[in-house]
Write a structure and sequence with these properties.
By secondary structure, the chain is of the alpha/beta class. It contains twelve helices and eight strands. Helix 2 links the parallel strand 2 and strand 3. The two termini are 32 Å apart. The structure holds 1,4-dihydronicotinamide adenine dinucleotide and (2S)-3,4-dihydro-2H-pyrrole-2-carboxylic acid. (2S)-3,4-dihydro-2H-pyrrole-2-carboxylic acid binds next to helix 7. One of its GO terms (molecular function) is pyrroline-5-carboxylate reductase activity.
Length: 275
């Protein structure tokens, strides 16, 4: 499979790492390009054995799949660059938050094969949770190619496009919320006098263990929480503090706000650049 990346930032890098680790393609079958940072492209070339180019005709000719991995605000400028070289046999996979399939079709051509995906940065360790949606021009073969790409970086759920703003908020941004909680756990460990390295190991194992329990026991999160919470014990006091600070509601509001932002990101780009 020959695959190119328009945009060579954290998300492109995470997907490339997965593709190569799982031998989905060879480094020489991957082209990367960005706006102007040649140094970054050379670094990727050295690290992964991928090729880089600013020649869009060559990049597009080479590609079965073109991954659109620029920030949503740069979507339009990246479309302008590649539009002259679009052909009907290329599968475009956008990982851009908020950018709709119809906007991509408007810019690249109504009959283009387009997938809109929302992975997360855990892709770089093969643990992404990815939602993906296809337009009707994506053939079964191309759907298989896309499944190969995303299964190399973790699990994938095929969904209706209207689910993707929610998925962006839930699992696209999700790792950041978990890291935010870990930052707070690390600070509390310091404040209660634990040794930093030991605390870090304990936190990581606690996270991994809780994830494994959720995955393998089939029990609901609330039931697992209750099993930890001994009446009159320590957890009960801790949870009472979380309730006092309305942490549950804050997380619900956080994810709803992120989903709204994903919708707004798409709308603002689309209204700025009517074709
Ligand atoms: N970082 C994350 O956790 C996730 C990001 N995404 C999405 O992935 C996309 C990329 O995000 P990051 O990799 O974090 O961004 P980034 O800022 O690390 O990388 C963006 C890349 O796009 C390039 N670029 C900008 N304009 C360009 C143009 N006109 N032509 C060619 N290249 C251009 C930049 O030079 C840079 O290499 C975003 O749309 C984001 O919504 C999706 C899932 C998770
Ligand atoms: O923050 C963002 O906009 C991107 C999309 C999901 C994760 N990062």
């Amino acid at each position: 499979m020959k695959i190119s990346f328009i945009g060579a930032g954290s998300m492109a890098e995470a997907i490339i790492a997965g593709l190569l680790r799982k031998n989905i393609c060879r480094g020489q079958d991957i082209f990367v390009t960005n706006r102007e940072d040649r140094e970054k492209l050379t670094e990727l070339e050295d690290r992964f054995g991928v090729r880089h180019t600013y020649d869009m005709a060559a990049l597009m000719q080479h590609s079965d799949i073109v991954v659109l991995a620029v920030k949503p605000k740069d979507a339009h400028s990246s479309f302008q660059k590649i539009k002259p070289y679009v052909t009907s046999d290329i599968l475009f996979i956008s990982v851009m938050a908020g950018i709709s399939i119809s906007y991509i079709e408007e810019n690249l051509g109504e009959s283009c094969a387009v997938a809109r995906a929302m992975p997360n940065t855990s892709a770089s360790v093969g643990k992404s949770a990815t939602g993906i949606s296809f337009n009707p021009h994506v053939s079964e073969y191309q759907q298989k190619l896309a499944a190969e790409v995303f299964s190399s970086i973790g699990m994938t759920a095929v969904v209706k496009e209207n689910q993707l703003d929610g998925i962006t908020a839930l699992s696209g941004s999700g790792p950041a919320y978990i890291y935010y909680i870990v930052e707070a756990m690390e600070r509390s460990a310091e404040e209660i006098g634990l040794e930093a390295d030991t605390a870090k190991e304990l936190i990581l194992q606690t996270l991994a263990g809780a994830a494994e329990m959720l995955k393998t026991t089939g029990s609901e999160a609330s039931a697992l929480r209750k099993a930890v919470t001994s009446p009159g014990g320590t957890t009960e006091v801790g949870i009472q503090v979380l309730q006092k600070y309305k942490v549950h509601d804050a997380i619900v509001e956080c994810i709803k706000a992120a989903a709204e932002k994903s919708k707004r990101l798409g709308r603002s780009q689309e209204s700025k650049h009517t074709v």
